């Protein structure tokens, strides 16, 4: 198998965003869209929702991206399968967006919600983020799930909630860094915007080769 | 191109297995809506639905176009003719689109695997020149892999049954034991279908109104796990 960048007419970088249900994947994308647009990044989004097309419609309705640049792919009750064992419909959706809106710099593929064992197929994406949040518990990084360990970028979201759920963010970050072998960890608060510039800079450097 | 029996069997297992990435996991072909409406509630209902999808739709609609695409031997104009017939004979929007999305998924993976004919036909589909229905793509690509027509039909019938039963299982309508028991019992029906010649393309037809209506209703449902 070839990776996405080698598969032919693909010009965009493809980035997966995974993580448990409710960790803030859609909110993160909503906040990243204007920041990426400000840097002149042309992008499209594929969402995999477990139950509804709500995530796709939320992005479309928000006016943050042209509705036709967002495609929803139903996961058939198997959110892991469509990003890993059988990503064919997601690849087809990304290829379709690529052909309609070329040249694109970036296609974001949002998973429908996973457990800590989920990973993205590298035939589907070039790079992937895993989003967890402090309210899920500060023991999450220590569980060393493949999502935590293997993701190119780990985001610990909702850090504003830490005092309310009894979590020491610095300790949670240290635990995450300890199991990730030097790969980056970024703390974010999608309400205030804290950490989001760091995420964009990281994507620009690692994925878009712009910085 | 012919394979030894052993290699043919292994190729059938590879390409007929749900481990092969075909996009099938996203489609319920009406089961999701029928389950939500209380029309399918128990294992016997699931078994009756799958049996009718095999006999009332697949045997008289998908199978003839699969055979025609297979018999085309890589002649893409003949494949295209069968594809157009399938398009004209697919009433419900979600049935038609689901079949084409699965066909596109199959072309995509086979294009990446280098299967002969996949890239050429994918170009026609992407240019909007051909619909790319899954039964047609199966016939085209499985022939290219050296699988004979009878084997290809067995794989397609098995794949449809497994896809439907998998959807029913994930919707909580049946358990893992029932799904295998039903699949085993369906072998008799599949064997009967596959022992008779498929109808000629001129007699292509499908009669599965409950599934068609369910898929039509499914189009506007807000809450959905499956594409159809």
Mind explaining what this structure looks like?
The complex is a heterodimer of chains A (211) and B (228). Chain A has a single domain, classed as Rossmann fold, CATH 3.40.50.300. Chain A is globular, with a radius of gyration of 16 Å. Chain A contains 7 helices and 7 strands, in the order βαβαβαββαβααβα. Chain A is an alpha/beta fold and 211 residues long. The longest helix of chain A has 14 residues. Chain B is mainly α. Chain B has one domain: Urease accessory protein UreF. Chain B has 10 helices and no strands. At the A-B interface, helix 3 of A face helix 5 of B.
What is the arithmetic mean of pLDDT of chain B?
A: 95
Spatial shape of chain A: globular
Number of continuous helical runs of chain A:
7
Element order of chain A: H for helix, E for strand: EHEHEHEEHEHHEH
Terminal Cα span of chain A: 30 Å
What strand order characterises the main sheet of chain A? Answer: 3-2-4-1-5-6-7
Q: What is the subunit arrangement here?
A: heterodimer
Radius of gyration of chain B: 17 Å
Instruction: Note poorly predicted spans of chain A.
Output: 1-8
Helix percentage range of chain B? 55-70%
SS strand fraction of chain A: 15-25%
Q: Compute the gyration radius of chain A: what is it?
A: 16 Å
Describe the sheet with the most strands of chain A.
7 strands, parallel
Distance between the termini of chain B: 37 Å
Number of domains of chain A: 1
CATH architecture of chain A: 3-Layer(aba) Sandwich
Number of strands of chain B: 0
Number of strands of chain A: 7
């Amino acid at each position: 198998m070839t990776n996405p960048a080698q598969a032919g007419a693909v010009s965009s970088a493809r980035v997966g965003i995974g993580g448990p249900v409710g960790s803030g994947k859609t909110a993160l994308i909503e906040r990243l869209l204007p920041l990426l647009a400000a840097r002149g990044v042309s992008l499209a989004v594929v969402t995999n929702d477990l139950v509804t097309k709500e995530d796709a419609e939320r992005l479309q309705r928000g006016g943050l991206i042209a509705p036709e640049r967002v495609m929803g792919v139903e996961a058939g009750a198997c959110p892991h399968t469509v990003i890993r064992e059988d990503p064919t419909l997601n690849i087809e959706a990304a290829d379709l967006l690529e052909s309609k809106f070329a040249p694109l710099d970036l296609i974001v593929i949002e998973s429908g919600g996973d457990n800590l064992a989920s990973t993205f197929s590298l035939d589907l994406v070039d790079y992937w983020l895993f989003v967890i949040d402090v309210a899920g518990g500060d023991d999450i990084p220590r569980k060393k799930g493949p999502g935590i360990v293997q993701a190119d970028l780990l985001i610990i979201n909702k850090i504003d909630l830490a005092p309310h759920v009894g979590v020491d963010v610095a300790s949670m970050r240290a635990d995450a860094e300890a199991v990730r072998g030097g790969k980056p960890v970024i703390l974010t608060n999608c309400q205030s915007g804290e950490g989001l510039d760091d995420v964009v800079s990281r994507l620009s450097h690692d994925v878009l080769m712009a910085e | 191109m012919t394979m030894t029996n052993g290699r043919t069997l292994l190729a059938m297992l590879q390409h007929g297995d749900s481990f092969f990435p075909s996009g099938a996991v996203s489609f319920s072909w009406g089961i999701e809506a029928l389950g939500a409406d209380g029309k399918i509630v128990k294992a016997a209902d699931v078994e009756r639905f799958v049996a009718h999808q095999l006999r009332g739709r697949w045997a008289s609609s998908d199978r003839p176009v699969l055979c025609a695409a297979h018999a085309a031997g890589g002649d893409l104009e003949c494949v295209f003719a069968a594809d157009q017939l399938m398009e004209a004979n697919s009433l419900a929007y979600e049935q038609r689109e689901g079949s084409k999305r699965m066909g596109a998924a199959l072309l995509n993976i086979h294009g990446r695997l280098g299967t002969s004919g996949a890239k050429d036909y994918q170009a026609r589909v992407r240019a909007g020149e051909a619909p790319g229905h899954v039964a047609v793509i199966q016939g085209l690509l499985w022939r290219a892999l050296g699988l004979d027509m009878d084997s290809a039909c067995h794989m397609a019938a098995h794949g449809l049954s497994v896809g439907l039963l998998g959807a029913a299982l994930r919707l909580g309508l049946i358990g893992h034991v029932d799904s295998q028991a039903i699949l085993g019992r369906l072998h008799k029906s599949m064997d009967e279908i596959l022992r008779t010649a498929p109808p000629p393309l001129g007699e292509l037809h499908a009669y599965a109104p409950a599934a068609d209506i369910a898929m039509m209703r499914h189009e506007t449902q807000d809450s959905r796990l499956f594409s159809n």
